[in-house]
């Protein structure tokens, strides 16, 4: 079984979790994902991560060796984007 690509992992997450925004970077063994989903509303960070692991299912044990993630609600994502725009104004 070959190591999954970042696009594969993105597809696995998207198939099991409705996302407003989803970015995945990685090298086939270690991945970092930014996941924005309305399903995260009202849940702790641990519960959000459990929801992503549930979406990945067996792949988390068999194919993906390490996954770091930032899990945000749409409102949190919008606030983050606004904060970044204020810190990094376009010239």
> What's the alpha carbon Rg, rounded to whole Å?
14 Å
Strand order of the largest sheet: 1-2-3
Largest β-sheet summary: 3 strands, mixed
User: Count of helices?
Assistant: 4
What does the overall shape look like? globular
User: What string gives the helices and strands in order?
Assistant: HEEHHEH
The percentage of residues in β strands lies in 15-25%
Mean pLDDT: 91
Secondary structure: helix percent: 40-55%
Note the gap between the termini.
47 Å
Notes on the protein architecture:
- It is a single chain.
- With 91 residues, the chain is of the alpha+beta class.
- It is 45% helix and 22% strand.
- It is built from four helices and three strands, in the order H-E-E-H-H-E-H.
- The protein has helices at 6-16, 45-56, 59-62, 74-87; strands at 21-26, 30-36, 66-72.
- The chain has a three-stranded mixed beta sheet.
- A hairpin with a 3-residue loop joins strand 1 (21-26) and strand 2 (30-36).
- Helix 1 packs across helix 2 (45-56).
- It is globular, with a radius of gyration of 14 Å.
- The N and C termini lie far apart (47 Å).
């Amino acid at each position: 079984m070959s190591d999954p690509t970042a696009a594969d992992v993105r597809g696995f997450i998207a198939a099991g979790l409705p996302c407003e925004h989803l970015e995945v970077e990685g090298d086939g063994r270690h991945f970092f994902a930014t996941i924005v989903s309305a399903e995260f509303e009202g849940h702790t960070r641990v519960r959000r991560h459990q929801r992503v692991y549930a979406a990945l299912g067996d792949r988390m044990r068999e194919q993906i060796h390490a996954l770091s993630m930032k899990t945000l609600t749409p409102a949190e994502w919008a606030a983050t984007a606004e904060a970044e725009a204020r810190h990094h104004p376009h010239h």
